[in-house]
Amino acid sequence: MQPKTNRWIANSAKLGDPPVYDTAVFPWVKELEAHWETIRAEAAAALQDLEKVPPLATISPDHRRIAPAGRWRSFFLIGYRYRDEANCAKCPKTTELVERIVPGINSAFFSILVPGTHIPPHTGVTKAFLTCHLGIQVPREREKCRMRVVDQWVHWTEGKALIFDDCYNHEVLNETDETRIVLLIQFKRPVGIIGKIVGGLFLEGVRRSRFVQDARKGIAQWSAERVGQ
User: Fold this and answer.
1) Which of 143, 154, 219, 227 has the most CB atoms in a 10 Å sphere around its CB?
2) DSSP conformation class of 76
3) How far apart (Å, rounded) are the C-alpha atoms in residues 203 and 207?
4) Alpha-carbon distance 191 to 210, whole Å?
5) What is d(CA 34, CA 204) in angstroms, rounded to the nearest whole number?
6) Contact yes or no for 156/113 (Cβ under 8 A)
């Protein structure tokens, strides 16, 4: 059903269907960027020991094909509307800001790429949401830390948002000797009534699927194993 639902959602999209968006069309971006230093401070405190931040390939079996072992780590606040209360408590302002995003969020987490990481070409799950990256820690050699979306190469800037549709083919490279950190937000795509109905039903199905439930179990197991470490 994925290709058909994606076509319905794209046809219902209020802001078109480009691979990369002008962030100015999303009013909430200004507030997010205005508080980026507060978000950075919360991230710095929460991510002091990256060995305690789970690798995405460990907690989500479905990501093992594209997530190099131990090199792409994710500190989840919210995942498919499931809150990690302990992590949200460590980043209260960040959580408050993302929960104010209109028309609503699907997931929010700090995405960490260690030096020398390559996430190969892949596509996302659904056009029901778009993806925002807020630059938190960007390597000094920006040209060597980049993302390709279709045929466009984009770079991150600390304190600035980047918004794209991850259903388009994309890949990520960090060819520097520094770690890259972004606040990754999946937010609902602005769509008409057909898009809302189709996208809502599809997202609810994904939320209840093994894809999401296995990841929830993986996070819980990772956290339990590291209590007291």
Assistant:
1) 219
2) E
3) 6
4) 27
5) 32
6) no
Q: What is the pTM of this model?
A: 0.92
Letter for the amino acid at 71? R
Cβ-Cβ contacts under 8 Å for 80 (sequence gap 6 or more): 106, 107, 203, 206, 207, 212
Above 90 in pLDDT, residue 108? yes
More confident call, 204 vs 132: 132
Quick one: how far is CA 99 from the chain centroid?
14
Name the residue type at position 139.
P
Residue 154 pLDDT exceeds 70 = yes
Cα–Cα distance for residue pair 75/184, rounded to 1 Å: 10
Instruction: Please state, as a whole number, how many other Cβ atoms lie within 10 Å of the Cβ of residue 69.
Output: 10
Q: What is the DSSP-derived secondary structure letter of residue 190?
A: P
Which tokens go with 127? 């056009």
Q: Which two tokens stand for residue 85?
A: 């209360």
**172 pLDDT higher than 60:** yes
For residues 141 and 123, give the distance between their C-alpha atoms in angstroms, rounded to a whole number.
26
How many whole angstroms from its chain centre is CA 116? 20
pLDDT reading at 201 higher than 70:
yes
φ, ψ for residue 127 (rounded to 5)?
Answer: -80, 5
Contacts of 82 (CB under 8 A, 6+ apart): 207, 212, 216
pLDDT surpasses 80 at 102: yes
Burial of 1 (0-12, 13-18, 19+ CB in 10 A): exposed
Distance CA 170, CA 150 (A): 6
Query: What average pLDDT does this structure show over 73-79?
Result: 93
